[in-house]
Amino acid sequence: IFQGCTNLSSVTFGENVKTIPAYAFYGCSKLTGKLYIPENVSRIGYGAFGDCGGFDAIEVSDKNTTYQGKQNCLIETSTGTLILGCRNSTIPSIVTKIESNAFMNCYELISITIPESVTSIGSGVFDNCNSLECIKVDEKNQKYSSQDGILYNKAKTEFIHIPSALQGSVVIPARISSIPSEAFRNRDGLTSVTIGSGVTSIGSTAFNGCSGLTSIDIPNSVTSIESWAFGNCSGLTSIDIPNGMISVGYMAFYNCSGLTEIVIPDSVTSIGRSAFEDCSGLQSVTIGNGVTSIGSSAFEDCSGLQSVIFCDPNGWSYNGKKIDSAVLQNPTSAAKYLKAYNSFDWTKGTSNERRSK
Predict the structure, then answer these.
(1) Burial of 112 (0-12, 13-18, 19+ CB in 10 A)
(2) What is the pLDDT of residue 2?
(3) Most CB within 10 Å of its CB: which of 37, 38, 113, 180?
(4) What's this model's pTM, rounded to 2 decimal places?
């Protein structure tokens, strides 16, 4: 009915209104203040207040038998479903289900505690809660758990939600097997991360834009870092690439201007295109024996690069042209050569030689 009315700032329901249709006020981004549901409203459709501006308070008439307002939450009485929360909400213990997008756009919500009673949480519940720092879960809850402010399933094998304004240090549980794409993207309040021993892959842009991140501990279990995973992490000063690593993807460490030294272990076989581009503070790189390809612009604009150690300087070529191994045996000349011909893909040995290995 009023979907997308971006200038609508308040709404009052008359005594004849019985139904608020699905998506009736969806996208009314300025709809804030106090929401009051009168006695006569007996049905509120899915997403009726989705993507609104975030209410200061929610109240329901004491005479309404379908819904109740409790602790600034709009709750469907018969099912215990939390339909809508606001920035000042406290989830009451009568809630068993949190509907999708229930707290969406509650920009000033800082922390929330999920009680023991909750058994189901929909999708996008905390989307665009840009001030949310911490989610806590009652230890007696049988479906969900929390650690360092992050919401997990009970077994801590799956991320449910990572708050937008997450602060400080995080230890990722050992039962997590992968860090999804964009998982921690732009969490600039994050200062350090210890990745659990069960993690095998770090998805694309997983930590992109975490400018406050100064240290990260990557275990040997991690075998791949995908594109942009640590891009724009300007606060990182050092990072240890584990011995089990096989590939470093496109722009994986783009614009990590604080990095000064990188040691790439023998287990890595390829360095992706633009993997360390714009790492202006990078001075020294060691490239392990196992590396057989370096993507174009892998070290583009690494203006401070002075030393490149090729553990195996033999058999390298760029654009089909062989490189004299004597050039690559000297770290200073290797750095100059790598920067001079950085716009080409570098390969080690012929394709037949690489297959025979």
Answers:
(1) buried
(2) 87
(3) 37
(4) 0.87
